[in-house]
TrEMBL record:
This is Decarboxylating 6-phosphogluconate dehydrogenase. Belongs to the 6-phosphogluconate dehydrogenase family. Residues 160-292 form the 6-phosphogluconate dehydrogenase C-terminal domain. Keywords: Gluconate utilization, Oxidoreductase. It comes from Catenulispora pinistramenti. It comes from the Bacteria. Pfam families: 6PGD, NAD_binding_2. The gene is gnd. NCBIfam families: gnd_rel (TIGR00872), PRK09599.1 (NF007161).
Length: 292
């Protein structure tokens, strides 16, 4: 089949290549002309046969909003838009309603696989109507890993990105657990080979995972991670997962704690701990460290 792809960065560029390797035609547009097949969204739409399918892989928020709005003016009734970025699921509902006024269909696709997706395939969680998903199923099949797993029609519009949001929230918690375990082992006076301990866990243990494999790779590159600053950003999905837990009255203590740990990583000196230290000094006479 033929499909348009908007956004050819680390994810989108590899996705274009994987789809093409499966024998499909991809017309790609990116603001960087070195990456693009066409010079504009208008040219992309004109290059596709009707009914068209256009996949968006741009940053969540204003970039996605602007792309959806522009496509709503360029596409025709019967065309289809897929948002494969990391949009918040509530935005999917708004985009679907906007496009519906033009009789343009909408599918949201949570995509996981990162820079390894070209080689290993991408896990896909999609939301939308059965008929709309069936139209682009050949592209989903090209992107997903080989075998029967790696793809799910999660439900109606928004269900794909909601599923990906929860996936990333779980990812936060797993990574934080590995990180805490690593620091604990590095701090133990009688443990001398932390990297090989993690390597030994890759087979036969209940905590083996691809994230564990990637941590071992990182330790092979820098055994004590001495070249990495202890700073971790968050891309939004962790916050949204915690907020969804609040909205649905579902406790998410592990995911919430892992998100807060990332916030702590951005502070060279914690203002909160200043207050805690001052209180400990006041009620117990505990010593405080002075600013140099």
């Amino acid at each position: 089949m033929e499909i348009g792809l908007v956004g050819l960065g680390k994810m989108g560029g590899n996705m274009r290549e994987r789809i093409r390797r499966a024998g499909h035609t991809v017309v790609g547009y990116d603001r960087d002309p070195k990456l693009a097949d066409v010079g504009s969204l208008k040219e992309l739409v004109e290059a596709l046969p009707a009914p068209r399918a256009v996949w968006i892989m741009v940053p969540a928020g204003e970039a996605t909003d602007a792309t959806v709005r522009e496509l709503s003016d360029l596409l025709d009734a019967g065309d289809l838009v897929i948002d494969g970025g990391n949009s918040r699921w509530t935005e999917d509902v708004k985009h679907a309603e906007l496009l519906k006024t033009k009789d343009i269909s909408f599918v949201d696709a949570g995509v996981s696989g990162g820079v390894w997706g070209l080689q290993n395939g991408y896990a896909l969680m999609v939301g939308g109507e059965d008929a709309d998903i069936a139209r682009v199923q050949p592209v989903f099949d090209a992107l997903k890993p080989e075998g029967d797993s790696g793809f799910v029609h999660a439900g109606g519009v928004g269900a794909g990105h909601f599923s990906k949001m929860v996936h990333n929230g779980i990812e936060y918690g797993i990574m934080q657990s590995y990180a805490e375990g690593w620091e604990l082992l590095e701090s133990a006076p009688n443990v001398t080979n932390v990297r090989e301990i993690f390597r030994s866990w890759q087979e036969g243990t209940v905590i083996r995972s691809w994230l564990l494999d990637l941590l071992v790779r990182a330790l092979d590159d820098d055994e004590h991670l001495s070249g990495i600053r202890g700073y971790a950003d968050d891309s939004g999905e962790g916050r949204w997962t915690v907020e969804a837990g609040i909205d649905l009255a579902v406790p998410t203590p592990a995911i919430t704690a892992s998100l807060y740990a990332r916030f702590s990583s951005r502070q060279e000196d914690s203002p909160q701990m200043k207050a805690v230290a001052a209180l400990r000094n006041q009620f117990g006479g505990h010593a405080v460290q002075k600013e140099s």
